[in-house]
Amino acid sequence: MTESPRSAGHDELRGASPDLVRRARDERDPLPGTGGFAGRLDASLVRDVLGRELVYREGGDGPVDSWSFDPDELRDPELLPAGCVRHRSVDGSTDRDERDWSVPDRDDRVWTLPEPDPETDSTRAVRAVREAVRESVDEVATAGVESGEDGGLAVAFSGGVDSAAVAARLDAPLYVAGFPESHDVEAARSAAAAMGRDLREVELTHADIERAVPEVVRATGRTNAMDVSIALSLYLVAERVAADGYDRLAVGQGADELFGGYAKVANAPDDERVDAETVRGARREVVATLPDQLERDLRTLRGAGVEPVAPLLQDRVVAAALALPGPLLVAEGGERKVAFRRAVAEWVPDAVASRDKKAVQYGSLVSRELDRLARQAGFKRRMDDHVGKYVESLVGDGETTPPGGV
């Protein structure tokens, strides 16, 4: 589909084989058994239903045939929406034989997440989650051995049940990043001890934050305080992992979204942050935010020099999670991720499987310390978006200064 930077003569697809994605497209199967895919298929661009891989097309007045996996290769990159196929056709026809590549491009939403009826047998539902998680994590280890890259894998480990479910089944070093005495460092230490594993700690400083902010902004294209805080934590642990010689980083991403880990899901319908009337409905709203999160996180980790591995976002895990009834997402007493905790308790110590943890930007204290640095630099909390303005000042565009020109 491209002349520059990609050649129209080459099919390029990440995450799955062309035959599998072609079949998924023709059958409109959103969960065909992959961990996500994106790229060029036949004469179209494709991206999976959860956006677990990235592909960009040229926007604006740029060359209409240009696309890339890397937005930096395009003048005006636009991310293909998750679940879409982009092609060009005659009068809106979707018949591949009738496509005319001289007319404007169009995005068709081909894949949407299924909405299965809830499983009525709780034992069977938990077993399905257990088998799906176990197979997906073990597949990571097997893939490394088969490719000869087994020594290239590390695990981002915060001490919570999500990363522990991944780490406990992988023979790979565990890394945690945080400021001294942060929740994540303390939780990771105790969890690693309970699992009988060594832990590599990345102790963060203010100098690390100031240095890394421009790098994170360049990698992600984002300057808002929340995204930068989350990305900083990921970037700094991944940077250390890459420096130690590992090129793949396994993460526990997706468990909170899929299995009911958020307070706004647990509190539905009384939480104003969700529109749904049920826990299952609120969970679906949260899952719908994954494509945006994944663009940030994939670009962050790749910008730090590692390839992310997310076994909890494999199709089989997604399918098992979507079939869970509300009480196996959030119990009557308020316990979250009920089915997930029960499922992985087979290989995760009880003290870790039952543990709650903070979001990474708070657990690592990165968000707190980024706010502190902003205020020290003169960007006070009374200012609108004071942390975002501080971030912009560090990027070096010369346009954002605190009051008084400090």
Can you lay out the helices and strands and say which pair or pack?
Blueprint: E1 13-14, H1 18-27, E2 38-41, E3 44-47, E4 56-58, E5 67-68, E6 77-79, E7 84-88, E8 105-109, H2 122-147, E9 153-156, H3 161-167, E10 174-178, H4 183-195, E11 199-203, H5 206-220, H6 225-243, E12 248-250, H7 255-259, H8 263-266, H9 279-287, H10 290-303, E13 307-309, H11 315-322, H12 338-344, H13 350-353, H14 360-363, H15 366-376, H16 386-395
Parallel strand pairs: 9-10, 9-12, 10-11, 12-13
Antiparallel strand pairs: 1-2, 2-3, 3-7, 4-5, 4-6, 7-8
Helix pairs in contact: 2-11, 2-12, 5-6, 5-10, 5-16, 6-10, 15-16
Keywords summarizing the entry:
406 residues, alpha/beta, Rossmann fold, 2 domains, five-stranded antiparallel sheet, five-stranded parallel sheet, 13 strands, disordered N terminus
